[in-house]
Design goal:
heterodimer; A: 132 residues; alpha+beta; Ubiquitin-like (UB roll); 5-stranded mixed beta sheet; two-stranded antiparallel sheet; 2 helices; B: 90 residues; mainly alpha; Arc Repressor Mutant, subunit A; 39% helix; binds FE2/S2 (inorganic) cluster; 2Fe-2S_ferredoxin-like_sf (chain A)
Chain lengths: 132, 90
């Protein structure tokens, strides 16, 4: 099942069988990649598309630009945070972790009634006005 | 269509930006301050052209007007450890 999303023979890139296999972990699970893979490409080939979740809302994020521009793919590599998965070459025994939801100062104790963005704040105010 | 996310770092939708622009008829910079579009991790480098384009559509304000979205170094996020020279720069 693993690594079946790969080109096995390519006129420029050569044969997959010529490349060296390496192992790495992502969120504690062990995966196989090939030398020369980026973290993002190795995970994609293994069917993993979610690289992190938004720190506040928890919505899933993955490869977006794939050229190191947008930082949407940032993961934690060997305890270093904010590493771009799309640019970083995978190394044997790398420990990769996804981004999680962070404790938020805006997280409401009143069952999420506080607005998360200014736009939500305005909307809420308007709704309140409408009710009065 | 309006639910398209324009700024992914701060999760600001096209709808948020359009509504705010319509309501306040303001500059792109004010949009940024009101909605947080362009204030996230990537430094606004990803959504800035999109925000400018929406502004042009809604208020007719062209990019590069009096109060533009600010562009300033560093050109990409750098950790304090990197700035201190404690890490190989990338
Ligand atoms: S996907 Fe945009 S920086 Fe990696």
């Amino acid at each position: 099942m693993t690594n079946n999303r790969r080109i096995v023979d390519h006129p420029v890139l050569g044969k997959l069988s010529d490349r060296k296999e390496i192992t790495f972990t992502y969120d504690g699970q062990t995966y196989t990649g090939y030398e020369g893979d980026t973290i993002a490409s190795a995970l994609l080939a293994n069917g993993v598309r979610t690289l992190r979740v938004h720190e506040e809302s928890g919505k899933p994020r993955g490869i977006y630009c794939n050229i190191g521009h947008c930082f949407e793919c940032r993961v934690t590599v060997n305890n270093e945070t904010g590493v771009r998965a799309c640019l970083t070459e995978i190394k044997d025994q790398m420990v990769v972790e996804s981004g999680r939801v962070l404790p938020s100062p805006l997280a409401s104790t009143e069952h999420d009634t506080l607005p998360r963005t200014y736009a939500e704040f305005v909307k809420q105010q308007e709704e309140e006005k409408g009710e009065v | 269509m309006d639910h398209i996310t324009i700024c992914r770092c701060e999760e600001v939708t096209l709808e948020d930006i359009k509504n705010t622009a319509k309501k306040y008829q303001c500059s792109a910079r004010e949009i940024k301050l009101r909605t947080r579009a362009g204030m996230g991790y990537c430094g606004g480098r990803t959504c800035r052209p999109a925000v400018d384009a929406v502004m042009e559509q809604v208020t007719g304000e062209k990019p590069g007007h009096d109060i533009p979205l600010k562009v300033q170094p560093p050109v990409r996020p750098v950790s304090l450890a990197t700035l201190r020279g404690m890490q190989d720069d990338k």
